[in-house]
Design brief:
single chain; alpha/beta; Rossmann fold; Immunoglobulin-like; 8-stranded parallel beta sheet; 21 helices; 26 strands; 19% strand; globular; binds 1-deoxynojirimycin
Length: 720
């Protein structure tokens, strides 16, 4: 064991402060992948001394490259302190898994964990030590492009996925498992709630709401042992998270007991200047270090200013020492003082990255993530002998990996056309793009119509390019682009049945097509094996089972719309509701087009005989709620059974439903299984007006069902 306290004592103040900066790969000597330092990076004016003493690197990849940078660094760094390599491995390294929003729709924690484990393996043999994931921001606004990175709108579900991903990335012993990487949960806190869905925008919410809905998933990641936290760009109660002492020192470090490394998001320290809470870089540096940010990502406020604050006595050097020690501890935990190259291994990299087995898991997850939104007249699954007209801008496109797949390559992705050709005789398929994502020509649409006229079924692949979601990918209009709607209308005139397959990074406003399409399959951005997975579903070799974890609004004007909302004093569906003076829109329903938990299958399920083990829950005991689920169709399937509760009367208003459990159950045709869920008093706690977290005696309801909108109910009481 290295004596890290001694190492900190041996470091000069300059060396310590440089440990706190994170710079992108092109700054480092030795890199075999020398990018050019241009534009804003060049203007940063980072001296060679700072680079020699820097603590971590952003965005490097490749075993050979990372080893070369590390080797050179160890020669240049006076005390031989190794660099930490951190990158965004969000849903896969080179083998790309479905986007996290899709993974959420699988409700499959084991597979989610497995996907994170594979991502960690590919990243670690390629030299990476830390991934900037999981992103666990709760999301309710599909205009925000980064909803694709989240698992959805529910605090409980997000927390379960946060845990699964941390387990997958980190394993149980980072020091002895070089095939794992440290995880960095982000973006602390409440980054998923920007006003108007515009990225980086102000977040306004009460502390109670933040604690109730937004903080649980970050906390779950930390409880699972997540090593790092990244601060958010947004304000939290008027103060940017990165300079927010209450959020970082009191809540994160104090209440949540987090003693790991806290990194700012890219440039977020300096951004306190335009936010208007720091007059210059010096003031921004002081606020961030005092708030508890250990590493400043990609700006130089710390290296340029912290020393003068220590010299003037405005900053206690002990605060810097603590930050440095935390970084060194992480390096030690990752085993870097013993082996600075850790898992980096060119041979393993060749052998394991994008291995057949990894692609197989990606395919499996893509199958489970797809959500069947509509299937009129059971047009799906398709007959393998049908004549198919395959069209739409995403019919033969590799742009199905999603915005966070920087190492993934579109060329490696199986397109829908390729997937379909693995299933049917090529003579049955005619393909024409019909339009691009945002433009349509007379010629292209005519070619698509012509091939449709000769086919039995039209398969229409619509959606978004990966650039239309992700960071800085907000949209005010969340319909399909007009060119694609036009193509849909032209094809509709042929009278042939239309199966729409959607590849997109957010819930869309689908009202233009939802009535007239015969079937709609939400494929999301399904990753490297996307086309193969979707073809399996289209041809019935797999039965779709995914269910939405984020509501699909009726229109953007209905946003935010989410299942776990409050009732209001004038609910529209109350038995005595008036016609006009109720909480409603005059022009659209209150309900989303497709609610949380919704998703169809090729079979049908019936829910019967809800039962509860007692009608009163006594504190310290548990109740069991169960229901019988039968596969009433003729196809085997997996049903995601959902368990919700409602607290009828609270000290503050309570959601109409809250997810408290779920199970994926496999059922053969005609088979019945009983799904059981337990309730304890802890699950009924919530944040009261004074922020205390406790339960109230009284009336509750338990629900079991196939979606948030289709449930059976049974009452119970809590008695402490
Ligand atoms: C900015 C993004 O907000 C964050 O999620 C990411 O980890 C960093 N850039 C580093 O790439």
């Amino acid at each position: 064991m290295k004596n890290l306290q001694q190492l900190v004592r041996d470091m000069t103040l300059d060396e310590k402060i440089a440990q706190l900066i994170q710079l992108a790969t092109p700054f480092f000597k030795g890199s075999t992948d020398q990018g050019e330092i241009t534009g804003p990076m060049k203007e940063m004016g980072v001296s060679p001394k700072i680079i020699e003493n820097a603590g971590s690197v952003l965005g490097a990849s490749g075993a050979e490259n990372i080893k070369a940078i590390q080797k050179q660094h160890l020669m240049d760094n006076r005390l031989g302190i190794p660099l930490l390599f951190m990158s965004d491995i969000v849903h896969g390294y080179k083998t790309i898994f479905p986007i996290p929003l899709a993974i959420g729709c699988s409700w499959d924690l084991e597979l989610a964990e497995k996907s994170a484990q594979i991502a960690a393996l590919e990243a670690s043999v390629s030299g990476i030590h830390v991934t900037f994931a999981p992103m666990v921001d709760l999301v309710r606004d599909p205009r925000w492009g980064r909803v694709m990175e989240s698992t959805g709108e529910d605090p409980y579900l997000n927390s379960e996925f946060a845990r699964a991903q941390v387990r997958g990335f980190q394993g149980s012993d980072l020091a002895n498992e070089p095939e794992r990487v440290a995880a960095c949960v982000k973006h602390f806190a409440a980054y998923g709630a920007p006003e108007g869905g515009r990225d980086y925008n102000t977040v306004t919410m009460s502390e109670r709401d933040m604690r109730e809905s937004y903080l649980p998933a970050y906390k779950a990641a930390l409880d699972e042992g997540c090593e790092m936290v990244m601060s958010a760009f947004n304000t939290v109660d008027g103060i940017p998270a990165t300079g927010n002492k209450k959020l970082m020192r009191d809540i994160l470090r104090g209440e949540m007991d987090f003693d790991g490394v806290l990194i700012s998001d890219w440039g977020a320290v300096k951004e306190m200047i335009p936010h208007g809470i720091a007059e210059d870089e010096a003031a921004a540096a002081l606020k961030a270090i005092q708030a508890g940010i250990d590493i400043e990502m990609m700006t130089t406020c710390y290296v340029d200013h912290l020393k003068s604050f220590v010299d003037s006595g405005d900053l206690d050097e002990g605060i810097i020492d603590e930050a440095v020690l935390r970084i060194l501890k992480l390096k030690e935990k990752l085993g870097l003082f013993d082996n600075p190259y850790r898992g980096a291994d060119e041979l393993l990299e060749k052998e394991l990255v994008m291995s057949e087995n990894h692609r197989k898991v990606s395919r499996e997850l893509a199958v489970k993530s797809a959500v069947l939104l509509k299937n009129s007249g059971n047009i799906l699954p398709l007959d393998k002998g049908s004549k198919i007209a395959l069209t739409g801008p995403l019919a033969d496109s590799g742009d199905i990996l999603g915005a966070w797949s920087w190492q993934g390559s579109k060329e490696d992705a199986v397109t829908l056309k390729e997937g379909i050709l693995q299933k049917i005789d090529p003579s049955l398929l005619s393909a024409a793009s019909g339009s691009s994502i945002e433009a349509i020509s007379q010629e292209d649409s005519a070619a698509a119509v012509k091939s449709a006229e000769e086919a039995d079924v039209i398969l229409l692949a619509l959606g978004e390019s990966s650039g239309m979601s992700g960071e800085a990918g907000s949209r005010s209009n969340i319909k399909l682009p007009e060119a694609q709607l036009k193509l849909f209308r032209e094809l509709k005139k042929t009278g042939k049945p239309i199966v729409v397959i959607l590849f997109n990074g957010r819930p869309l406003d689908l009202t233009d097509i939802s009535g007239e399409a015969d079937a709609i399959l939400e494929a999301w951005q399904p990753g490297t094996e996307g086309g193969a997975a979707i073809a399996e579903i289209l041809y019935g070799d797999e039965n779709p089972s995914g269910k939405l974890t984020m509501s699909f609004p009726y229109t953007a004007g209905q946003v935010p719309v989410y299942y776990n909302h409050y009732n209001t004093g004038r609910p529209k569906d109350a038995p005595d509701a008036q016609e006009r003076y109720v909480s409603q829109y005059l022009d659209i329903p209150n309900k989303p087009l497709f609610p949380f938990g919704y998703g169809l299958s090729y079979t049908t399920y019936s829910y019967k005989k809800i039962n509860i083990s007692a009608d009163t829950l006594v504190k310290g005991d548990k109740l069991t709620v169960s229901a019988e689920i039968t596969n009433t169709g003729s196809t085997a399937g997996e049903e995601i059974v959902q368990f919700y509760i409602r607290d009828a009367v609270g000290e503050v208003v309570r959601p109409l439903k809250e997810l408290k459990g779920f199970k994926r159950i496999a059922l053969e045709p005609g088979e019945t299984k009983r799904a059981e869920f337990s309730i304890s008093e802890e699950q009924l706690r919530y944040h009261h007006a004074d922020l205390s977290f406790k339960s109230d005696n009284g009336q509750f309801f338990a629900y079991i069902g196939s979606s948030s909108d289709e449930v059976m109910t049974i009452p119970f009481k809590l008695q402490s």
